[in-house]
């Protein structure tokens, strides 16, 4: 068994100051634009404002290694703070604005920030956290404060192994943990996603997923900025705004979660919009149902399904455009700087086609969790491989298929049952919008499936008998759920993942 090697990229000890280098190479090129207001920043603007933010941090007592929190919707100022922290050696902590103060207080107690930047719409929540740190309102005084600062001279290189920002996990399986993101992880993800989708300096991508999730930062906004492209910033997902941008032929790359694709496909103008200008369509965060993939294929869209984790930076697997239509259901192959094993309960590699847990290694993998050595030890094998908790198999051609989460798998009558497989079948029913399957105790079989169904909008809910019969035509009998319950919508994380633990409450 080969041990996991260092997470560093050989020969790369540090990154140059990214915005300074881009400002030198193409100062007048547009780096980002706020889609709603049309306000834009060139790379020279972004670099200058980031340097002034670094000065602001220092005047407020922020020292290298200190944490700086931010609580707001997507906006250009987030990126000014991200790069300003890099220049000053501080660590940015994006916070989930959907969380109530009592949950955020636990996160702040964990990371102990010096400052909390927030928007006006988050002012009440930020006020409830005032005992933790000083606050700065991004909509009241921030601009004048930044403008009044001197740019100063800041460090010109960023050590690869040093933390840049923390992303707290969503907590769907337990207490949120702060995943450490290093500068080295940023360059590894840039290589992994950049080579996979051919990120170019002429690209325009859309930043609408929340920046307190890894996809909001890294798919594809930060890699596009590193390459010198343009990032359009939306303060959140707005299907009308996205369709309008497509109609204006403004996007070259696009990444969304399955719920985003579902909303686009339901929009009346999406199917008539010009789509051929989008060079790459990516999807991740949750399994893309086959039905959605087939609907996209009918429109000529090659949606490249992928899989990664907050802890992997996130890019790990991604299907190529050439394989997107022929291998629906696969997450493709490991990307350039990613190493993967599939192992059994004993930690031994499984045979081709067999299901096991996915392990990761490589420079894109986090060094661990902030202030939580116990969780860090539990996340890695003794020889340094990251345990994903995801179950997958590799086919004869080297393509990977994720079958579900280890913690979600259940045993019915001695047989392993993977909810993701059942959910994919249920989603193919014409009256089912989305499905979630969880185990339920059973006197004879130990556990059986319990399915929660969100019907298609405007469609009559199918009967339990109809759904069971539909499942039996596609699944072995032991996989067919024994009960079906209908819900108007699912509880979700901000990244669109269904919070199954809340369904059974």
TrEMBL record:
InterPro entries: AMP-bd_C, AMP-bd_C_sf, AMP-binding_CS, AMP-dep_synth/lig_dom, ANL_N_sf, ATP-dep_AMP-bd_enzyme. Residues 421-497 form the AMP-binding enzyme C-terminal domain. This is Acid--CoA ligase. It holds the Pfam family AMP-binding_C. It comes from the Bacteria. Residues 21-370 form the AMP-dependent synthetase/ligase domain. Keywords: Ligase. GO terms for molecular function: acid-thiol ligase activity.
């Amino acid at each position: 068994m080969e041990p996991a090697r260092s997470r560093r990229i050989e020969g790369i000890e540090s990154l140059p100051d990214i915005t300074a280098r881009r400002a030198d190479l193409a100062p007048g090129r547009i780096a980002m634009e706020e889609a709603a207001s049309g306000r834009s920043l060139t790379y020279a603007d972004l670099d200058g404002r980031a340097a002034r933010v670094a000065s602001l941090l220092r005047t407020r007592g922020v020292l290298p290694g200190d944490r700086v929190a931010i609580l707001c919707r997507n906006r250009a100022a987030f990126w000014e703070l991200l790069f300003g922290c890099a220049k000053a050696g501080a660590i940015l902590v994006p916070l989930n604005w959907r969380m109530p103060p009592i949950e955020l207080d636990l996160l702040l107690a964990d990371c102990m920030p010096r400052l909390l930047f927030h928007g006006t719409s988050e002012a009440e929540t930020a006020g409830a956290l005032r005992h933790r740190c000083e606050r700065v309102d991004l909509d009241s005084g921030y601009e004048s404060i930044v403008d009044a600062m001197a740019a100063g001279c800041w460090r010109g290189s960023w050590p690869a192994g040093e933390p840049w920002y923390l992303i707290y996990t969503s907590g769907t399986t337990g207490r949120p943990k702060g995943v450490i993101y290093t500068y080295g992880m940023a360059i590894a993800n840039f290589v992994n996603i950049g080579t996979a989708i051919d990120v170019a300096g002429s690209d325009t991508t859309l930043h609408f997923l929340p920046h307190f999730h890894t996809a909001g930062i890294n798919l594809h906004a930060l890699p596009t900025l590193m390459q010198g492209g343009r990032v359009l910033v939306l303060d959140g997902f707005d299907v009308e705004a996205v369709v309008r941008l497509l109609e204006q032929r403004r996007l070259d790359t696009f990444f969304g979660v399955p719920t985003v694709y579902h909303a686009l496909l339901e929009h009346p103008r999406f199917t008539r919009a010009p789509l051929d200008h989008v060079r790459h369509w990516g999807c991740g965060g949750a399994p893309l149902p086959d039905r959605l993939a087939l609907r996209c294929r009918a429109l000529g869209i090659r949606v490249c399904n992928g899989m990664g984790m907050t802890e992997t930076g996130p890019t790990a697997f991604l299907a190529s455009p050439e394989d997107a239509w022929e291998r629906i259901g696969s997450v493709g192959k490991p990307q350039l700087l990613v190493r993967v094993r599939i192992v059994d309960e004993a930690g031994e590699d499984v045979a081709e086609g067999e299901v096991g847990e996915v392990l990761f290694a490589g420079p894109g993998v986090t060094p661990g969790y902030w202030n939580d050595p116990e969780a860090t030890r539990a996340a890695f094998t003794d020889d340094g491989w990251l345990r994903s908790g995801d179950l997958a198999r590799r086919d004869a051609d080297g393509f990977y298929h994720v079958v579900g989460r280890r913690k979600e798998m259940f045993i019915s009558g001695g047989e392993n049952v993977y909810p993701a497989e059942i959910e994919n079948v249920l989603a193919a029913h014409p009256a089912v919008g989305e499905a979630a399957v969880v185990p339920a105790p059973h006197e004879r079989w130990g556990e059986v499936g319990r399915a929660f169904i969100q019907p298609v909008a405007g469609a009559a809910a199918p009967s339990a008998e109809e759904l069971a019969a539909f499942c039996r035509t596609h699944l072995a009998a032991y996989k067919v759920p024994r009960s079906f319950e209908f819900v108007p919508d699912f509880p979700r994380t901000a990244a669109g993942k269904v919070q199954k633990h809340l369904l059974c409450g």
